[in-house]
Amino acid sequence: MKLQKIxxxxxxxxxxxxxxxxxxxxxxxxxLGDPQKNLKSISVVGTNGKNSTIQTMRAILNAAKIKSNIYxxxxxxxxxxxxxxxxxxxxxxxxxxxxxxxxxxxxxxxITYFEILTAAYFYGAxxxxxxxxxxxxxxxxxxxxxxxxxxxxxxxVTAIGIDHxxxxxxxxxxxxxxxxEKTSELLESNIIISNQxxxxxxxxxxxSLKSNKSKxxxxxxxxxxxxxxxxxxxxxxxxxxxxLPMPNLMGNFQLSNVTAGIATLRYIKDLNISDENIKTxxxxxxxxxxxxxxxxxxxxxxxxxxxxxxxxGSHNPLGAKVLVDFLDTIHSKKHLIIGMMLNKEHQEYIxxxxxRIESITTVxxxxxxNSINGGDLKEKIIGFNKINYKxxxxxxLKSLSLDDEDVVLITGSLYLAGEVLNLN
Length: 424
Prior knowledge:
By secondary structure, the chain is α/β, with parallel strands linked by helices. The chain folds into two domains: 2-281, 3-Layer(aba) Sandwich (UDP-N-acetylmuramoyl-L-alanine:D-glutamate ligase), CATH 3.40.1190.10; 293-423, Mur ligase, C-terminal domain (Protein-Tyrosine Phosphatase, Chain A), CATH 3.90.190. The protein is built from 15 helices and 17 strands. α2 runs parallel beside α5 (113-125), α3 (50-63) crosses α8 and α6 (175-183) packs across α7 (199-208). It starts with a helix and ends with a helix. The mean pLDDT is 95.
């Protein structure tokens, strides 16, 4: 209860949820003694795959007995997920203590919720300043609150696509602008660029990074992978080739994120990551909540009984493309339950599922005033035969007519994924 009260107070420190600027967090961090300085860190930017890339690096570092801190957003079920110190998710009491101290030092100054949480992460991380910090950049990067670090060991650029265009100027809602925002101010160290969905995106990234003096490690130029039989894949870079077991993540598309994580740690030579660290680590990657996750037991699983139930928080066209590529590997009928936020590309996202889905059921996302009503979402969907609307996730699951081996996928929003996991 104490933690919820302080979080509520912090949310009221600024009238806007997002206000793109670095001035407020720099001011607060200065009051805090600039805890973001002198941290060993790896920054991760991009549209999709950031969390899987971070969890890959975390698992390999753990196998190498190198302790890590992690800052990520948003959380799926509880705020503690955003703060990992010394390899462990923060406990309520410790988080309350950190937030209380930061709130007191901030002394009522205007600052957004994300900014003060980011300052709190840096403030907490200074206690573990020998650890390696894995820091996920939130909205874009250039004006993201995490972009006050002055040096790092590496920056990882995961797959970039169209998302969050409502925060861009009216005449600049383009992939070029998104790439500029995410990559134009990356620090000069090592930059690892993951597999991109199209060669034109890769060329635009290269153009954006042209003046950056970092060592640049591009997928398919500096490192690559290929899938082999018998549950193995091959990884190769300038340091040699590795035969590796498949990671414990669902979907071969995750290899793009896993190999970006491997490349990052191998190119930071001072870490001395061994081949065995990599082999062990990628088989122990912590499952990322709400990211193509199978629900194997619980209240919602009981409704669909023996049918496979998946939840995925993808919410942009690039995420939909990756998701349907995975669904194409499942040779049975698929039923889609979908809820989305108001500011997303609804029709473009859903169009990827055309001719692949047996039925679609739209739902409301509880406790999210910025979500689109499921009934309104249904009206926006064209080109599908079986479309229904149910107000709740439970009703949607109960309404499905399922045959043996049918698969149910709940998707469209990380917030919806969180509600599914909480209900289950």
